[in-house]
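name: query_chain
kind: protein
chains: 1
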Amino acid sequence: MTNKEIAKQFQYLGEIMELHEENPFKIKSYLNAYLTIRKLPEPITEMAPGDLEKIKGIGSSTSASIQELLQTGAMQALKKYEEKTPPGVREMLHIPGFGPKKIRDIWKVLGVETIGELRYACNENRLVELKGFGEKTQEDLRQKLEYYQKSKGKSLFADLDVKANDLLEQISKALPEAQVSLVGGMRRRSNVVERMEFLVASETGVEPIFEQGFLTKMGEQADIFTAKTTDELPVTVYACAPQEFGSKLFRYSAGEGFLSAFLEKNKEVDFKGLATEEAVFEKAGMPYLLPELREEAWTLGKSFGKLLEPEDIRGVVHAHSTWSDGLFSIRQMAEHARSLGYSYLGITDHSKAAFYANGLKEDQVLAQWQEVDELNRELAPFRIFKGIESDILHDGSLDYSDEMLAGFDFIIASIHSNLRMEEEKATQRLLGAIENRHTTILGHPTGRLLLSRPGYPIDHQKIIDACAANGVAIELNANPYRLDLDWTWIPYALNKNVKISVNPDAHSTGGMKDIKYGVYSARKGGLTAEQCLTCLEVAGFEGFISMKK
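structure:
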């Protein structure tokens, strides 16, 4: 199990206990364990129990529960509560933004026990008379339910990345003479995918794959096999003859929009029986496009420069430390970034309005600056830039006074509260922050959490135009849950000469690895190193941020 999977078990335990109104201190301890475990950079499975229980926020009791989970695949404490909670009510706990207290009221007062019954209750206006509800709350819940059901059965690319490549290796070993490749959304590195898909070209068929035990065949139709992994993840295997590998690889790797437009443009061309993908593009008279660029029709016939690579990133910008809600000190974050080959670190703890994340008050900011100065003298030529993730307040102003803001090397302006504004107000709020002379980078512009909540509605063109006019870069937040700015807006931003900053939003040393997922998403929008802010060396980055001074 990954740290995130383990952490989610403790979040679930805390919430299901709250649903049953259990001891609030125990509930808090489990939720604290969730927050701690998900940020740990080292896999728990590789840690000794004695070391684990020494970590603040875990302790001996939680450590014992973790060991039980790892050894048996379950926790008895959790099973006890699951047994007395209807399955549909348990599922409600997985709806983001819908807490245990409200679920309890709906369950106990209205007798609603399934998601379907809950949607019906919303449509029948049955929730408005419950304490703590009302028309706005009911409508908000209805929208959350709709988004939840649309997202169900989907996974983040990052969650399947390692598993898919492990499966690719296992399939290749089971059929050593075959040509094997990832296809579908995994090969295009889509932000969200529905399944892992593989193409296998073999003279002898694909049955040996299912004889190995790592995949269970669920169905078969022509040369398409549906299956599931040992941990119930959906898989599709496409079989073909070696001589048509290129034709099938192209077909099964293309997004629907891209493929439809490609075939429409080449109605008279027969693409069957081609051994390579390059031959497909050559026959169409088009430049070859990497899989990431085969999502939508806009890339057809276009030539792209060398797309951004993870190794092109020179600095870790947007990182949190123990000064706010990070797990590691600035020194530890800097030394880890340096060990990974980066040239600089932009430390951006939360500003004072983010009290829930231990946002820094003015005196703490001054003390942090002093620490950064001392570390820069010691760690040179590695450089730490004094940044802040300043909350964009309700009216579009930035947290802190102008005088305090002027003291930072750079500022990422982000929204973390009041996420339910209508498009016009949300856009005006962001415009206010962009037009602030201190703003260097606009952080995660829509505030979305993939598969958890949609972003707040904004007029992307107005936002990008304003960034262009004010010399503000836009963050592509590399956290796999965010990947915000969405890659579909990168072409427009590049057309307006707006720099894209691929930032990990790292709350631990391990969070820096997310940079690659930001790069993967950026490539889908055609981003090159020349157009990426964090590909600049120290002097270049310093030059960019100094323009805002």
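note: The mean pLDDT is 93.
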